[in-house]
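Q: what does this look like with glutamic acid bound?
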Amino acid sequence: MNFDFADRVERVEPSATLAISNKASALEAEGVDIVDLSVGEPDFPTPQNVVEAGKAAMDAGHTGYTPSNGIPALREAVAAKLQADDIDADAKEVIITPGGKQALYETFQTLIDDGDEVVLLDPAWVSYEAMTRLAGGSLKRVDTAPHEFQLEPALPELRSTVSDETELLVINSPSNPTGAVYAESALQGVRDLAVEHEITVISDEIYDMVTYGVEQTSVASLEGMQSRTITINGFSKAYSMTGWRLGYLHAPESIVSQAAKLHSHSVSCAVNFVQHAGVEALKNTDQAVSDMRDAFRKRRDMLANLFDAHDVDVPVGDGAFYMMLPVDDDDQAWCAGAIEDAHVATVPGSAFGSPGYARLSYAASADRLQEAVSRLDQAGYI
Ligand code: PMP
Ligand code: GLU
């Protein structure tokens, strides 16, 4: 049977990050020892008190549907978290979603019509492009690679790229895949452009807890931005809860009421007992979050030193757990070779809009990171 697939699915490719991680898993199943630095997934267990809260919620019978936009306790805890980030948030402006990805998906679907212009800062996380295409939008991209992935020096190019035609601008700080944390002054530059051209901004802050010695600024906390910003966040990275699938969006109420229609017709609600665990994660994990952050920081420094010792100049960011390693122009071939020959899995920069790099996730043990560098060295990849 030849199916006539919808254009919207035919215009996108599967997620490159997940595809490479699947390839690494398949090789591992064949008995090959792969150092998998492809997928961005903390390698720590979910904090035990959060696990216990999830189990207790299940035992207490929190196993049915919840209100579609989420349980009041979690929406309120999210609003309190955002208030601590200087956003004047209210629980009714929050939708709890199964993962930050769903929050992003609902936002793109709510705001983007056929032909609407979306602007990304490259390198940009793989799913922004796909979500734009799924919604029928058109893309413009501003490359931060010539500026060591910083936003401030890229602002002039951003200024000449956006216009009154721009519908949406996506900001992701700390950034996946570069680890860059944008300075408040740079974000104020974004604010000026957004206000001037009446652009709506998605601020994906999923790595906000993973910063090293710098403060992350929430875009919606900047003057004039809350009324035009959708803040996206999730529990996967901060609390090592990738498989629980929990995230949220915060937006002006008019956006929330439109997105809520998509939400109710697609996922109905996020998982009930997972939402209860989410309340615990937001309230009682300061120590666990700080321990994970310290571990990531040590690994980042170790990896940067190892590359330095091999005379490889890698821009090192102050957040998230990724590095963009400069590789051959044909980064796809480099990554395919690295997994085949060195058994080290990485993601080609071209999947993020920046060819000539390979993204490494350092959410792996120090031993495995050392092993990866030594394998890449021995196989002649660095
Ligand atoms: N945004 C960014 C930048 C990410 O790296 C991820 C990683 N998965 C997500 C959103 C979505 O994460 P999740 O759906 O697991 O919350
Ligand atoms: N965000 C992570 C990554 O970029 C997880 C995979 C995905 O959702 O794309 O590797």
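The mean pLDDT is 97. The chain has 13 helices and twelve strands.
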